[in-house]
From TrEMBL:
Transmembrane segments: none annotated. It comes from Tangfeifania diversioriginum. It comes from the Bacteria. InterPro entries: 23S_rRNA-intervening_sequence (IPR012657), 23S_rRNA_IVS_sf (IPR036583). This is Four helix bundle protein.
Length: 123
């Protein structure tokens, strides 16, 4: 593997963060600057922690720590998307919540894989 961009979980998280960014900018004031800002940050944290963790993949415990942070950010973003879906009665945000949930499952499964199979010293 040549880089974090080859990880499916990174690519899924990146694409969804872009989608969330664009959707959140269409929220009315003050939602755009409150919940919108929060979900932009948490969704970007999902992909960023995967990338940062990959940079520390040589140290399995560090890699897992960043993947767990990514999973936690994904849960946070899911909660925010569910909130927006409910208060805005929005099918778009409900779909985003479902997509985040799916990515969260994939991240969790990848954490399990790394924990059981990852060899330290990978370059």
């Amino acid at each position: 593997m040549k880089g974090y961009k080859e990880l499916d979980i990174y690519n899924l998280a990146f694409k969804l963060a872009v989608k969330i960014y664009r959707l959140s900018l269409d929220l009315p004031h003050p939602d755009k600057f409150e919940t919108g800002s929060q979900i932009r940050r948490s969704s970007q944290s999902v992909k960023d922690n995967i990338a940062e963790g990959y940079g520390r993949r040589r140290y399995k415990a560090d890699f897992i720590k960043f993947l767990v942070a990514s999973h936690s950010s994904c849960l946070e973003a899911t909660s925010q998307a569910e909130f927006l879906a409910e208060v805005k009665n929005s099918e778009q945000w409900q779909i985003v919540a479902e997509e985040l949930n799916s990515i969260g499952i994939k991240i969790y499964n990848f954490i399990e894989y790394v924990d059981k199979n990852w060899k330290t010293g990978r370059g």
